[in-house]
Specification:
nine-stranded mixed sheet, single chain, mainly beta, five-stranded mixed barrel
């Protein structure tokens, strides 16, 4: 507690108390810690500890290893600075049920901590305080920051006209100890982060009751996490040309606010709002220590089976570009600019990407570049799948990565001249381009035996909705649908590599549908199963908690209902054998006008 670096300190948890957090998947705890001789009650287990592998609240008497921590100061009621131990990475060595209280520790006397301010904290530590019970929680002293790399050269921008550095004096922000992004909170206002720009939005204009304005945002990453920073008004002019994609910067004196999850899907409770006092310096040396942006690319042929509103990473070659279209928003009357691109990849499938406004106006597809999209949103139009961008989407043209060079080589040698299957075309909901079939035709026409699978639509009746194993507990993260494993009161997601204190219910639909010619089993996405049952997945799950037969009762109400099923069928290898798997990509109430048009066209064919 004097601030002397201690590597891998082993302590015992005598008690803990949860500190409220704004996010359902974040946790913080105030701990009572003992070394066997003394104990302290001012210890905080910080937000990002979940990423370090700790599952929920530490149990009483558990033995833990403190891997990363810092001593920071907080003012108490008497306005005295109180040292607080903030833990940012901790490992549980033994659970509380394996041990008992060790020794007879007494409270650590204040006089043993009187020299804490004079000591230097290890460079592997970070600082954060969120003492919600303190009446002076915003009075935080971070004077214990350490010196950084003295040889780093950088460019400084301080937008405060009253700043003592306004005439070009070095702010020395780069000489201060840098804090991990995951340690930032509104309760700690003296921080410096060293982060890479993973995404940079275009300048967007808006209008509200205060008048018109403009903004842009950047997504910043370091080893500990990610956070969004947003600039408004005159700060847009100051920073837009200064901050460049993929470069590393020191950032300080921004205001931390709770993130608006309606527009911000990053894994952080907070976001940074730049102010006139905000300082930004480019890091020219040591930037390699900040990780590069990582991608999890989904091939275009797989997007056909992905649910709408899922956020994915995509790499595609721009095969064609439409002319710029001028539109008008129905809701606001605002003039819009739109351009549609057709992307292809080695799966020889194509998909439409819509660009809007500035991106649409400035995009040049004449050279047929390779596009990288991070956090693109899967949309649907006319039954086909499309891609759209938003403020969170990163788009790179001809990115300098190995996958892009491979795609470019394939496109130049084969892809440019080949006809691709366009999963954005109106193969559903458009009788001129899709297959209206009877269910017996699925077998008689041999659908699904090709490499890409086949699409069709059919007017059919629910004969049986299977209720067994029809729901599961999924990851709490909004755009993740992975099944979680439950243990110790927490829910682990293998895909996100994280543990959450809660989960969400998702339906796993399976139904037998029939028309006059036959019947077939098909699977349904959770969103489409909700349409069939007429109730949300969460409502079904909560009903099952009260009544285990609830799903069967919902299923009974769905029997004999009629829908228009828009499906994809393909041979699937399962349990050492091939089987035909059919997925209902979309379920809609029957549009009788459209269906009657189809029947009339069939009658006319017979008459001719």
């Amino acid at each position: 507690m004097k601030g002397v670096p201690i590597e891998d300190a082993i302590l015992q948890v005598l008690g803990s108390k949860r500190i409220p957090s704004s996010s359902s998947d974040k946790q913080r705890f105030r701990l009572l810690l003992s070394d066997g001789k003394y104990f302290i009650s001012f210890a905080i287990l910080a937000t990002q500890i979940d990423d370090a592998g700790v599952s929920g609240e530490p149990s009483q008497y558990s033995i833990v290893k403190i891997k990363k921590c810092i001593i920071t100061m907080i003012s108490n009621v008497e306005n005295d600075n109180k040292p607080v131990l903030v833990i940012t990475e901790m490992e549980t060595l033994a659970s509380g049920d394996q041990t008992s209280k060790i020794g007879s520790p007494v409270r650590l006397p204040d006089e043993l901590m009187k020299d804490v301010k004079n000591n230097v904290v290890s460079s592997t530590t970070s600082s954060i305080v969120s003492n919600v019970n303190s009446p002076h929680k915003n009075q935080i002293d971070t004077s214990m920051s350490i010196q950084g790399d003295q040889n780093i050269s950088s460019t400084t921008v301080d937008t405060n006209v009253n700043s003592p550095h306004k005439n070009g004096a070095d702010t020395n922000i780069r000489h201060q100890f840098t804090h991990p992004i995951s340690s930032l909170s509104p309760y700690h206002n003296k921080w410096v982060i060293k982060a890479r720009v993973a995404c940079k939005s275009s300048i967007r204009t808006f209008k509200n009751f205060r008048g018109e304005g403009k903004l842009f945002s950047v997504d910043l990453i370091d080893k500990s996490g990610e956070i969004r920073a947003t600039m408004f008004g005159d700060l847009v002019d100051t920073f837009y040309n200064l901050i460049e994609l993929d470069k590393v910067y020191y950032v300080s004196k921004g205001r931390l606010e709770f993130a608006n999850k309606q527009f911000n899907s990053l894994k952080n409770d907070y976001e940074i709002k730049f102010t006139p006092n905000t300082i930004v310096e480019e890091c020219h040396e040591g930037a390699e220590s900040v990780p590069q942006t990582s991608y999890n690319f989904v091939s275009i042929d797989k997007i056909a089976d992905i649910e709408v509103d899922t956020v994915i990473d995509v790499l595609g070659a721009c095969k064609s570009t439409s002319d710029l279209q001028m539109l008008q928003s129905r809701s606001t009357g605002r003039d819009l600019k739109k351009r549609e691109l057709t992307l292809v990849d080695q799966s020889n499938n194509a998909i439409t990407l819509s660009l809007w406004d500035t991106e649409a106006e400035t995009f040049d597809g004449s050279s047929q570049p390779v596009l990288l999209l991070k956090r693109a949103r899967v949309s649907e139009y006319g039954g086909g799948k499309t891609l759209s961008t938003n403020a969170s989407t990163l788009m790179k043209i001809n990115p300098d990565i190995l996958e892009a060079y491979r795609l470019k080589r394939w496109f130049d040698n084969e892809g440019r001249s080949q006809a691709a299957l366009n999963i954005s075309s109106g193969w559903v909901g458009d009788s001129s381009q899709t297959q209206w079939i009877n269910l017996k035709d699925v077998h008689e026409m041999g659908l699904g035996h090709g490499e890409k699978g086949d699409y069709f639509q059919v007017f059919a009746t629910i004969l049986l909705y299977r209720s067994e194993n029809g729901i599961y507990k999924a990851c709490a993260k909004e755009d993740c649908k992975k099944k979680v494993a439950e243990g110790n009161g927490m829910y682990h997601c293998d895909k996100c590599k994280r543990e959450y204190p809660n989960f969400k219910y998702l339906l796993l639909g399976s139904a037998n549908i029939a028309d006059w010619s036959g019947n077939i089993w098909l699977s349904l996405f959770s969103s489409e199963a909700e349409k069939v049952l007429g109730v949300s997945s969460q409502a079904v799950g909560e009903a099952i908690e009260r009544n285990p037969q609830a799903l069967a009762e919902f299923a009974d109400k769905a029997h004999l209902k009629e829908f228009l099923f828009k499906c994809r069928t393909k041979m699937d290898y399962f349990n050492d054998e091939n089987r035909l798997k059919t997925v209902a990509l979309r379920v809609d109430p029957v549009n009788y006008k459209e269906y009657n048009s189809y029947l009339i066209s069939q009658i006319n064919e017979l008459l001719n």
